[in-house]
Design brief:
This protein has nine helices and five strands. It has 255 residues and is mainly α. One of its GO terms (biological process) is meristem maintenance.
Amino acid sequence: LVDAGLSSVLPLAPLTGDPGLITALVERWRPETSTFHMPFGEVTITLVDVATLTGLAIDGDAVIVDIPDEDWSAMCLRLLGQAPTDLGGGVIRITWLRETFDELPLSASPETTEQFARAYALSLMGGVLFSDRSGGSVHLQYLLLVEDWRRAGRFAWGGAVLSYLYREMGRSALQMTASSSLGGDFGGWAALLMLWTWERFPHTSPLHAVTGAQITQDAVPRGIRWLPAQTRQHGDQFYLYKLWFDECTTFVVSI
Protein backbone atom coordinates (compact mmCIF):
# COMPACT_ATOMS: atom_id res chain seq x y z
CA LEU A 1 0.00 0.00 0.00
CA VAL A 2 2.95 2.31 0.59
CA ASP A 3 4.28 1.43 -2.86
CA ALA A 4 0.83 2.15 -4.33
CA GLY A 5 0.68 5.61 -2.75
CA LEU A 6 -2.40 4.79 -0.67
CA SER A 7 -0.97 4.42 2.82
CA SER A 8 -1.70 8.01 3.88
CA VAL A 9 -5.42 7.31 3.51
CA LEU A 10 -5.46 4.47 6.03
CA PRO A 11 -5.76 6.55 9.23
CA LEU A 12 -8.43 8.74 7.61
CA ALA A 13 -10.59 5.85 6.35
CA PRO A 14 -12.65 5.47 9.59
CA LEU A 15 -14.00 9.04 9.31
CA THR A 16 -17.68 8.95 8.43
CA GLY A 17 -19.84 11.56 6.79
CA ASP A 18 -22.18 14.00 8.49
CA PRO A 19 -25.40 13.95 6.37
CA GLY A 20 -26.50 17.40 7.56
CA LEU A 21 -23.23 19.09 6.67
CA ILE A 22 -22.99 17.30 3.32
CA THR A 23 -26.56 18.25 2.40
CA ALA A 24 -25.88 21.90 3.25
CA LEU A 25 -22.75 21.90 1.10
CA VAL A 26 -24.50 20.26 -1.85
CA GLU A 27 -27.18 22.97 -1.69
CA ARG A 28 -24.44 25.56 -2.17
CA TRP A 29 -22.70 23.61 -4.97
CA ARG A 30 -22.91 24.83 -8.56
CA PRO A 31 -22.25 22.04 -11.12
CA GLU A 32 -21.64 24.59 -13.89
CA THR A 33 -18.48 25.85 -12.22
CA SER A 34 -17.72 23.09 -9.68
CA THR A 35 -17.71 25.67 -6.89
CA PHE A 36 -19.58 26.47 -3.70
CA HIS A 37 -21.65 29.64 -3.99
CA MET A 38 -21.12 31.62 -0.78
CA PRO A 39 -22.14 35.14 0.28
CA PHE A 40 -18.58 36.42 -0.20
CA GLY A 41 -17.96 34.66 -3.54
CA GLU A 42 -17.20 31.22 -4.93
CA VAL A 43 -14.78 28.72 -3.40
CA THR A 44 -13.94 25.10 -4.09
CA ILE A 45 -11.78 22.15 -3.06
CA THR A 46 -8.49 22.22 -4.94
CA LEU A 47 -5.80 19.67 -5.70
CA VAL A 48 -3.56 21.35 -3.13
CA ASP A 49 -6.29 20.85 -0.52
CA VAL A 50 -6.44 17.15 -1.37
CA ALA A 51 -2.67 16.75 -1.16
CA THR A 52 -2.46 18.68 2.13
CA LEU A 53 -5.40 17.01 3.85
CA THR A 54 -4.96 13.43 2.63
CA GLY A 55 -1.38 13.04 1.43
CA LEU A 56 -2.53 11.59 -1.90
CA ALA A 57 -0.40 12.38 -4.94
CA ILE A 58 -1.70 15.05 -7.31
CA ASP A 59 1.09 14.65 -9.88
CA GLY A 60 1.55 11.52 -11.94
CA ASP A 61 -0.25 9.24 -14.35
CA ALA A 62 -3.98 9.48 -14.91
CA VAL A 63 -6.00 6.82 -13.09
CA ILE A 64 -7.36 4.86 -16.06
CA VAL A 65 -8.71 1.31 -16.09
CA ASP A 66 -8.41 -0.93 -19.14
CA ILE A 67 -11.20 -3.51 -19.11
CA PRO A 68 -9.58 -6.98 -19.30
CA ASP A 69 -10.22 -9.65 -21.92
CA GLU A 70 -10.72 -12.31 -19.24
CA ASP A 71 -14.02 -12.66 -17.41
CA TRP A 72 -14.44 -11.03 -14.00
CA SER A 73 -14.47 -14.30 -12.08
CA ALA A 74 -11.17 -15.44 -13.59
CA MET A 75 -9.59 -12.06 -12.91
CA CYS A 76 -10.82 -12.14 -9.31
CA LEU A 77 -9.32 -15.61 -8.80
CA ARG A 78 -6.03 -14.52 -10.35
CA LEU A 79 -5.59 -11.36 -8.29
CA LEU A 80 -7.38 -12.27 -5.04
CA GLY A 81 -7.11 -16.04 -5.01
CA GLN A 82 -10.85 -16.33 -4.34
CA ALA A 83 -14.07 -15.24 -5.99
CA PRO A 84 -17.65 -15.01 -4.68
CA THR A 85 -20.29 -17.24 -6.21
CA ASP A 86 -22.68 -14.35 -6.88
CA LEU A 87 -20.25 -12.24 -8.94
CA GLY A 88 -22.54 -10.60 -11.47
CA GLY A 89 -21.47 -7.84 -13.85
CA GLY A 90 -18.11 -7.48 -12.17
CA VAL A 91 -19.60 -6.05 -8.96
CA ILE A 92 -18.47 -7.45 -5.62
CA ARG A 93 -19.87 -6.87 -2.15
CA ILE A 94 -17.56 -5.06 0.25
CA THR A 95 -18.84 -7.17 3.14
CA TRP A 96 -17.64 -10.29 1.31
CA LEU A 97 -14.19 -8.74 0.93
CA ARG A 98 -13.96 -7.83 4.60
CA GLU A 99 -15.21 -11.22 5.79
CA THR A 100 -13.08 -13.27 3.41
CA PHE A 101 -9.89 -11.28 3.96
CA ASP A 102 -10.46 -10.44 7.61
CA GLU A 103 -7.13 -11.64 9.02
CA LEU A 104 -3.89 -12.47 7.26
CA PRO A 105 -2.57 -15.88 8.39
CA LEU A 106 0.76 -15.76 10.23
CA SER A 107 2.22 -18.29 7.77
CA ALA A 108 0.97 -16.44 4.69
CA SER A 109 3.13 -16.60 1.58
CA PRO A 110 4.16 -13.41 -0.27
CA GLU A 111 1.51 -14.21 -2.90
CA THR A 112 -1.22 -14.51 -0.26
CA THR A 113 -0.05 -11.30 1.40
CA GLU A 114 -0.38 -9.45 -1.91
CA GLN A 115 -3.87 -10.88 -2.39
CA PHE A 116 -4.93 -9.65 1.04
CA ALA A 117 -3.42 -6.23 0.31
CA ARG A 118 -5.32 -6.04 -2.99
CA ALA A 119 -8.55 -6.96 -1.22
CA TYR A 120 -7.97 -4.20 1.32
CA ALA A 121 -7.14 -1.68 -1.40
CA LEU A 122 -10.28 -2.69 -3.31
CA SER A 123 -12.49 -2.17 -0.26
CA LEU A 124 -10.71 1.15 0.37
CA MET A 125 -11.46 2.34 -3.15
CA GLY A 126 -15.04 1.08 -3.21
CA GLY A 127 -15.95 2.05 0.33
CA VAL A 128 -14.02 5.30 0.74
CA LEU A 129 -12.22 6.94 -2.18
CA PHE A 130 -14.64 6.12 -5.00
CA SER A 131 -17.69 4.99 -3.08
CA ASP A 132 -20.97 4.83 -4.96
CA ARG A 133 -24.37 5.65 -3.55
CA SER A 134 -25.09 2.08 -2.54
CA GLY A 135 -22.08 2.13 -0.23
CA GLY A 136 -22.04 -1.66 -0.15
CA SER A 137 -20.39 -2.80 -3.37
CA VAL A 138 -17.42 -2.09 -5.60
CA HIS A 139 -16.67 -2.89 -9.23
CA LEU A 140 -13.74 -5.20 -9.91
CA GLN A 141 -12.35 -2.74 -12.45
CA TYR A 142 -10.67 -1.00 -9.50
CA LEU A 143 -8.78 -4.20 -8.73
CA LEU A 144 -6.80 -3.71 -11.93
CA LEU A 145 -5.40 -0.48 -10.54
CA VAL A 146 -3.44 -2.42 -7.91
CA GLU A 147 -2.45 -5.38 -10.05
CA ASP A 148 1.02 -3.85 -10.31
CA TRP A 149 1.96 -1.98 -7.11
CA ARG A 150 4.74 0.04 -8.75
CA ARG A 151 2.43 1.18 -11.54
CA ALA A 152 -0.15 2.12 -8.91
CA GLY A 153 2.47 4.25 -7.18
CA ARG A 154 2.75 6.43 -10.28
CA PHE A 155 -0.96 7.33 -10.29
CA ALA A 156 -2.20 10.80 -9.37
CA TRP A 157 -4.72 9.39 -6.89
CA GLY A 158 -5.56 12.82 -5.51
CA GLY A 159 -6.72 14.10 -8.88
CA ALA A 160 -8.90 11.05 -9.46
CA VAL A 161 -10.49 11.31 -6.01
CA LEU A 162 -11.23 15.01 -6.47
CA SER A 163 -12.70 14.65 -9.96
CA TYR A 164 -14.90 11.78 -8.74
CA LEU A 165 -16.08 13.91 -5.81
CA TYR A 166 -16.83 16.81 -8.19
CA ARG A 167 -18.95 14.51 -10.35
CA GLU A 168 -20.88 13.13 -7.41
CA MET A 169 -21.45 16.61 -5.97
CA GLY A 170 -22.84 17.69 -9.33
CA ARG A 171 -25.17 14.72 -9.53
CA SER A 172 -26.44 15.29 -6.02
CA ALA A 173 -26.97 19.03 -6.59
CA LEU A 174 -29.02 18.40 -9.74
CA GLN A 175 -31.19 15.77 -8.05
CA MET A 176 -31.94 17.70 -4.89
CA THR A 177 -35.09 19.76 -4.48
CA ALA A 178 -35.70 22.63 -2.10
CA SER A 179 -37.24 20.31 0.50
CA SER A 180 -35.06 17.24 0.05
CA SER A 181 -32.19 15.93 2.13
CA LEU A 182 -29.44 13.68 0.86
CA GLY A 183 -29.25 11.49 3.93
CA GLY A 184 -26.90 8.65 3.06
CA ASP A 185 -27.47 9.00 -0.69
CA PHE A 186 -24.07 10.43 -1.60
CA GLY A 187 -21.13 9.12 -3.58
CA GLY A 188 -17.47 10.04 -3.30
CA TRP A 189 -15.22 10.53 -0.31
CA ALA A 190 -17.51 12.40 2.09
CA ALA A 191 -14.78 12.70 4.74
CA LEU A 192 -12.62 14.73 2.35
CA LEU A 193 -15.48 17.17 1.91
CA MET A 194 -15.89 17.44 5.67
CA LEU A 195 -12.17 17.88 6.37
CA TRP A 196 -12.01 20.71 3.85
CA THR A 197 -15.04 22.41 5.40
CA TRP A 198 -13.68 22.17 8.95
CA GLU A 199 -10.38 23.67 7.85
CA ARG A 200 -11.83 26.44 5.68
CA PHE A 201 -14.88 27.29 7.82
CA PRO A 202 -13.68 26.85 11.43
CA HIS A 203 -17.09 27.76 12.89
CA THR A 204 -18.55 24.55 11.40
CA SER A 205 -15.86 22.27 12.82
CA PRO A 206 -16.12 19.78 15.71
CA LEU A 207 -15.28 21.12 19.12
CA HIS A 208 -12.62 18.59 19.98
CA ALA A 209 -10.00 18.63 17.26
CA VAL A 210 -6.50 17.68 18.36
CA THR A 211 -4.25 20.71 18.74
CA GLY A 212 -1.16 21.89 20.58
CA ALA A 213 1.38 19.41 21.87
CA GLN A 214 -0.65 16.37 20.86
CA ILE A 215 -0.12 16.97 17.16
CA THR A 216 1.53 19.79 15.26
CA GLN A 217 -0.09 21.98 12.65
CA ASP A 218 2.44 20.56 10.19
CA ALA A 219 1.22 16.98 10.59
CA VAL A 220 1.22 14.96 7.37
CA PRO A 221 -1.39 14.48 6.15
CA ARG A 222 -3.06 17.41 7.88
CA GLY A 223 -6.41 15.63 8.00
CA ILE A 224 -5.24 13.32 10.79
CA ARG A 225 -5.50 16.13 13.31
CA TRP A 226 -9.28 15.70 13.12
CA LEU A 227 -9.32 11.97 13.84
CA PRO A 228 -10.46 12.13 17.48
CA ALA A 229 -13.08 14.76 16.68
CA GLN A 230 -16.75 13.98 17.06
CA THR A 231 -18.93 15.48 14.37
CA ARG A 232 -21.85 17.56 15.58
CA GLN A 233 -24.42 15.64 13.52
CA HIS A 234 -26.77 18.60 13.24
CA GLY A 235 -29.43 18.94 10.56
CA ASP A 236 -28.72 20.60 7.25
CA GLN A 237 -30.61 23.77 8.24
CA PHE A 238 -28.15 24.31 11.09
CA TYR A 239 -25.21 24.10 8.70
CA LEU A 240 -26.94 26.20 6.06
CA TYR A 241 -27.26 28.93 8.65
CA LYS A 242 -23.59 28.54 9.57
CA LEU A 243 -22.44 28.66 5.96
CA TRP A 244 -24.75 31.41 4.76
CA PHE A 245 -25.82 33.70 7.59
CA ASP A 246 -23.73 33.10 10.70
CA GLU A 247 -20.13 34.27 10.37
CA CYS A 248 -20.49 33.74 6.65
CA THR A 249 -17.33 35.72 5.89
CA THR A 250 -15.14 33.47 8.02
CA PHE A 251 -13.15 31.58 5.40
CA VAL A 252 -9.57 30.46 5.96
CA VAL A 253 -7.71 31.20 2.75
CA SER A 254 -4.58 29.15 3.48
CA ILE A 255 -4.27 25.89 5.41
